[in-house]
Amino acid sequence: MSYTPEILREANQIISRRRSEAQSTYDARHLEILREIPEVKQYENHMAETGLAVIKALGMGSDSERYLNELSRTNLHVQSCIRAELKKHGYPENYLEVPYTCKKCEDTGFVGGFACSCRKELLRKLNIDALCKTSPAASCRFDNFNLDYYSDKIDERYGFSPREKAEEIFEYCKAYAEDFGKKSGSLYMCGATGLGKTHLSLAIANVVAENGFDVLYGSAQNILSKLEREKFDRGNRNDEEKRVLSCELLIIDDLGSEFSTQFTVSALYNIINTRINLSLPVIISTNLSPAEMEARYSQRIMSRIIGNYESMMFIGRDIRQIKYYEDKE
Questions:
Q1: Which of 29, 124, 243, 295 is least crowded, fewest Cβ atoms below 10 Å from its Cβ?
Q2: With 90 as the cut, is the pLDDT of residue 235 above it?
Q3: What is the span of the domain harbouring residue 207?
Q4: Quick check: 239 pLDDT over 80?
Q5: Pairing assessment for the beta strands 114-115 and 186-191 based on DSSP bridges
């Protein structure tokens, strides 16, 4: 599992803020209780004396264990007395416990040198939030992909119906997302506009990101434009290029809609070739046919896609148009 430096930094800041807020709440409560229940201070002084006695007991040799057990019982009794005082004055018995968000790690994010479950959950959430900021991922899930919009009539050109093909692709994508790992392959989704290519690529992104992998999604126009700006910005550190080439899953949506230049073709080749060499998967969606892709981007780019990607041909009617006319009725 891998997360961007930005997500890791944000998680650390949130966990640190949780701990600071919990300590501030405790400090305020402690001052309140000392003001309202002076007896608590006496109990705390007694506990402090017990702590000093523990240090002394460590040098007592064979008698230390018996003495430490006695001190432990005394300490527990004093804590019980404090809880009784709190209850008597109308406070919750745990009012003087530090109200950590996660009691297991006490808002440090780690337990025994390993990441706490609260930290893992926070990173997962931030990962999903980051994906949703750059895409409509929240509305594109496997559970709301509707196969009913695909015709069940056999298409004579292919020998099967659009629904059969869509169902086959849907099941493949779902399994791909659930089993995603370092050995996952790349996907090439092609077909006319409005057939669910973006929906399914984002449904994959949702599941993969939820499982803690670093997913970068963007339209071809946005990704290539950022790379071009970065290329000619002398003060830039090439952060975008590093992310595009090294993220665990890269999704390039709507390839072919961007303004094609010598730079964009060269950048696309570099992305595809580098990630093949690094065994890092890419999902490409396009409205262009394979022949149109080759004419636009060159034979060597198309050759690498055909030789290294799982191809998925979407067929049928534009679903967006079908929904539009349904809404009009």
A1: 295
A2: no
A3: 134-328
A4: no
A5: unpaired
Most confident of 66-80, 143-157, 194-208: 194-208
Q: What CA dihedral angle connects 291, 296, 301 and 307, to 10 degrees?
A: -10
Question: Is pLDDT at 233 greater than 90 in this prediction?
Answer: no
- Grade residue 76 by pLDDT with cuts at 50, 70 and 90: confident
Is 70 within the bounds of a domain? Answer: yes
CATH number at residue 181: 3.40.50.300
Same-domain check for residues 158 and 90: no
For the cut 70, the answer to whether the pLDDT of residue 232 exceeds it is: yes
Q: Distance between CA 222 and CA 9 in Å, rounded?
A: 25
Same domain, 159 and 31: no
Q: How many CB atoms lie within 10 A of CB 177?
A: 22
- Decide: 246 and 280 in contact? Cβ < 8 Å: yes
Q: Residue 143 carries which DSSP code?
A: G
Give a yes or no: residue 120 inside a domain: no
- Map residue 92 onto helix, strand or coil: coil
Tokens of 165: 């093909």
Phi and psi angles of residue 66, each rounded to the nearest 5 degrees, phi first: -65, -40
- Amino acid 52 reads L
* Structural domains in the chain (count): 2
